């Protein structure tokens, strides 16, 4: 009979906590892995992913905006236009309502 192995799932926050615990240096990687019951190979995989993600994030120049920033700016511009148009129409309806009340 074969057993189906059940793997534990770690959240990204838990993975970061584990990797940082190993990077702090106050205890060894082996001790951290033993505490969280993970293999050292898994720890080093997570560490490499974390460092690679950090390198990517830090490699982006401050003045260069991410691609979605342009899309967000365009959406905000469109929202502002629609809000102005709504304001104008609301004002026109108020004036029309006042004019109709004067006919009574």
Automatic annotation (TrEMBL):
<dbReference type="InterPro" id="IPR036388">
    <property type="entry name" value="WH-like_DNA-bd_sf"/>
</dbReference>
<protein>
    <submittedName>
        <fullName>Transposase</fullName>
    </submittedName>
</protein>
<dbReference type="InterPro" id="IPR010921">
    <property type="entry name" value="Trp_repressor/repl_initiator"/>
</dbReference>
<dbReference type="Pfam" id="PF01527">
    <property type="entry name" value="HTH_Tnp_1"/>
</dbReference>
<dbReference type="InterPro" id="IPR002514">
    <property type="entry name" value="Transposase_8"/>
</dbReference>
């Amino acid at each position: 009979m074969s057993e189906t192995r059940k793997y534990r799932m770690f959240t990204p926050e838990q993975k970061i906590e584990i990797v940082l615990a190993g990077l702090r240096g106050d205890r060894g990687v082996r001790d951290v892995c033993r505490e969280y019951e993970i293999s050292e190979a898994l720890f080093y995989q997570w560490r490499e992913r974390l460092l690679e993600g950090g390198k990517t994030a830090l490699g982006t120049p401050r003045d260069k905006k991410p691609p979605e920033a342009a899309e967000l700016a365009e959406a905000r511009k469109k929202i502002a236009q629609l809000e102005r148009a709504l304001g104008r129409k609301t004002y026109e309806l108020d004036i029309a309502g006042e004019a109709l009340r004067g006919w009574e």
